[in-house]
Amino acid sequence: MNAPINVLLFGITRDITGQTAIQHPLSPNARVSDLLTQLHGQYPRLAEIRALLVAVNGEYAEPDTQLKSTDEVALIPPVSGG
Amino acid sequence: MVSLTSNPIDISSAYKYLQTDGAGAIDLFLGVVRDNTQARPVDRLEYEAYDRMALSEMRKITDEACRRWNILKFVVVHRTGLLRIGEMAVLIGVSTPHRADAFEATRYIIDTIKQTVPIWKKEVFMDGEIWVNATP
Fold it and tell me: Chain B contacts of A15, Cβ < 8 Å?
């Protein structure tokens, strides 16, 4: 098992989890899609969100982006600035 | 220049920054807090941002605007935190030699911010609250 990855939470994802960040154990060769699947299992209410994207190191990431424990990961629910 | 702030946005300092001798047009767009959403009275809005990414995504948008239009100077300021009715949430300012570029660039910047920049607003009503756009 690798070191846990830090996942930042904003907006509705912060309300659902009750936390501003979570430490998530990362399986070897985990991709963004794997992380999302695991988090949905842990927090089923994430399914209420219209569309959930993931940012890795401050950039929007694709589902097949591979994760490292040193990455800064953030869940990005639908944005609503302006 | 793009920035986030938890303090009230100052129009006059943005205007001063935008002034330049080659400009024939300065456009300002001000997004302000409305007192209702679909007739439901709003008490306040609460904005939060993923700061580093919000800034980098806003810079991508202004970079693209500068490629598309002849922009001499630009300002983007987005507020975070708790905002009351009538307060300014966002200011977009653009100075250009001629007005058409200023109108189009300003509109492009605000429209794209609403689509891609990781900033979220919670509408707080008298009898509940909702993260805007978050749920179907």
Answer: 131
Specify the amino acid at residue A46.
L
A50 with B134: Cβ contact below 8 A: yes
Distance CA B19, CA B25 (A): 9
Instruction: Find, in chain B, the residue whose alpha carbon is nearest to that of A80.
Output: B120
ipTM value for the complex: 0.95
A44: CB partners within 8 A, 6+ apart? none
- pLDDT digit string, tens, across residues B20-77: 999 999 999 999 999 999 999 999 999 999 999 999 999 999 999 999 999 999 999 9
Our CA dihedral for A46, A49, A50, A56, rounded to 10 degrees, sits at -70
Query: What pTM value is reported for the model?
Result: 0.96
